[in-house]
């Protein structure tokens, strides 16, 4: 892991955020001209560890199947950069970070951020690294939100965009979901209005929240398919608890608020880079019909947009577990944009 110092950021809400740091990981070597870089974006509760050992809930090595020598994002050719998002707790500045004004963790005093802020921090990180243009931005789920935010905020900064299992705006009642999370956390004796760092962790509450989330993703079908697994319920609980021991409850609230405010539907005509959009037919979080409608709109705007839908029993995990069902299409897309066919 490496960390880049960005200094002060002025957030979209107007608040300043001092001494911003972004943690990141790279896979493969940057070319002398730094023109072979692909940025990959992670989901809400993941980290910048995009490749390597894979845990059952896909947190570490979440795209190990597609990053590496000879894989889709071929590290013999490309340099893959993965950053821990602003507001998270795996090395980037977030609620658990020390507030330089007080010397204590920010906690619930951390200012509100948006997907636009998350992308702005990534952009600044890349510029510090000397990168002037990306081959592509790619992400799944909330990583897909980031990819689409990139597409409308910095439309000429990348040759292509790969977005999977995602939408052009937040779906569902985000405010109600956030309220439910806060209510569950507030029941813990150590919560103290979010200033819980000195009094203990939120392990039990976060474990319960994580179990519910993983079930909604369809992880039970994946666990059942794992060789040698004899107790899906125990595996699910162990997986959720392992995450709960390391994740910050305030980051969970902060990032979910940022996600709830995501909406680029009125800016799709600003996209300039070719876009590959991949969806799964059983994904209940982001139903495939969303992708079909978005592609129709993009094509009406004259945007180079490719749609691919896979059939799978694995719901929101489908494109991660069965990457072979979309990688061939993505290889053709990536080859086309990387070879400069679109400038």
Task: Report on the architecture of this protein.
- The protein has helices at residues 115-128, 142-153, 174-186, 203-217, 219-225, 232-244, 249-260, 288-300, 318-321, 327-338, and strands at 2-10, 16-27, 37-41, 67-68, 73-74, 79-83, 134-140, 158-164, 275-280, 305-310.
- The protein has 343 residues and is α/β, with parallel strands linked by helices.
- It has one domain (2-171, 258-338): Rossmann fold (3-Layer(aba) Sandwich).
- An eight-stranded mixed sheet has the order 1-2-6-3-7-8-9-10, sandwiched between helices. A two-stranded parallel ribbon has the order 4-5.
For this entry, give a set of tags.
343 residues; Rossmann fold; eight-stranded mixed beta sheet; two-stranded parallel sheet; 10 helices
Please specify the SSE layout and strand pairing.
Layout: E1 2-10, E2 16-27, E3 37-41, E4 67-68, E5 73-74, E6 79-83, H1 115-128, E7 134-140, H2 142-153, E8 158-164, H3 174-186, H4 203-217, H5 219-225, H6 232-244, H7 249-260, E9 275-280, H8 288-300, E10 305-310, H9 318-321, H10 327-338
Parallel strand pairs: 3-6, 3-7, 4-5, 7-8, 8-9, 9-10
Antiparallel strand pairs: 1-2, 2-6
Helix pairs in contact: 1-2, 3-7, 4-6, 5-6
Given helix and strand content, the structural type is alpha/beta
Instruction: Note the quaternary state here.
Output: single chain
User: What's the story with the biggest beta sheet?
Assistant: 8 strands, mixed
Assigned CATH class: Alpha Beta
CATH topology: Rossmann fold
Number of strands: 10
Give the averaged pLDDT, no decimals: 92
Give the domain tally: 1
Assign the CATH architecture: 3-Layer(aba) Sandwich
Q: Beta-strand percentage?
A: 15-25%
Biggest sheet, spatial arrangement of strands: 1-2-6-3-7-8-9-10
Please, how many helices? 10
Looking at CATH, the homologous superfamily is Alpha/Beta hydrolase fold, catalytic domain
Q: Please tell me how large the radius of gyration is.
A: 19 Å
Ranges with pLDDT <50 over ≥5 residues? none
- Overall outline: globular
Distance between the termini: 32 Å
């Amino acid at each position: 892991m490496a960390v880049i110092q960005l200094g002060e950021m002025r957030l979209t809400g107007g608040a300043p955020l001092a001494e911003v740091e972004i943690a990141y990981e790279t896979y493969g070597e940057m070319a002398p001209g730094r023109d072979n870089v692909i940025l990959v974006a992670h989901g809400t509760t993941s980290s910048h560890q995009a490749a390597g050992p894979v845990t059952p809930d896909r947190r570490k090595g979440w795209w190990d199947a597609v990053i590496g020598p000879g894989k889709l994002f071929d590290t013999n050719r490309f340099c893959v950069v993965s950053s821990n998002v602003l507001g998270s707790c795996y090395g980037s500045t977030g609620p658990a970070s020390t507030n330089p004004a007080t010397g204590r963790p920010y906690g619930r005093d951390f200012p509100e951020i948006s997907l636009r802020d998350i992308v702005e921090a990534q952009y600044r990180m890349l510029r510090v690294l000397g990168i002037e243009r990306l081959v592509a931005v790619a992400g799944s789920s909330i990583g897909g939100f980031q990819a689409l935010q990139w597409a409308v905020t910095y439309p000429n900064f990348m040759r292509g965009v790969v977005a999977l299992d995602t939408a052009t705006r937040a779906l569902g009642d985000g405010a109600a979901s956030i309220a439910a999370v806060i209510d569950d956390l507030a029941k813990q004796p150590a919560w103290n209005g979010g200033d819980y760092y000195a009094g203990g962790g939120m392990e039990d509450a976060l474990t319960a929240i994580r179990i519910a989330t993983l079930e909604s993703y369809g992880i039970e079908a994946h666990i059942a398919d794992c060789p040698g697994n004899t107790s899906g319920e125990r595996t699910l609980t162990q997986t959720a608890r392992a995450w709960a021991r390391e994740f910050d409850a305030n980051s969970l609230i902060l990032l979910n608020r940022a996600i709830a405010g995501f909406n680029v539907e009125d800016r799709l005509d600003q996209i300039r880079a070719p876009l590959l959009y991949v969806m799964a037919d059983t994904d209940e979080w982001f139903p495939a019909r969303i992708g079909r409608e978005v592609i129709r709109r993009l094509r009406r705007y004259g945007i180079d947009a490719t749609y691919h839908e896979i059939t799978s029993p694995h719901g929101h995990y489908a494109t991660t577990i069965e990457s072979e069902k979309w990688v061939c299409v993505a290889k053709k897309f990536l080859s086309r944009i990387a070879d400069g066919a679109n400038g």
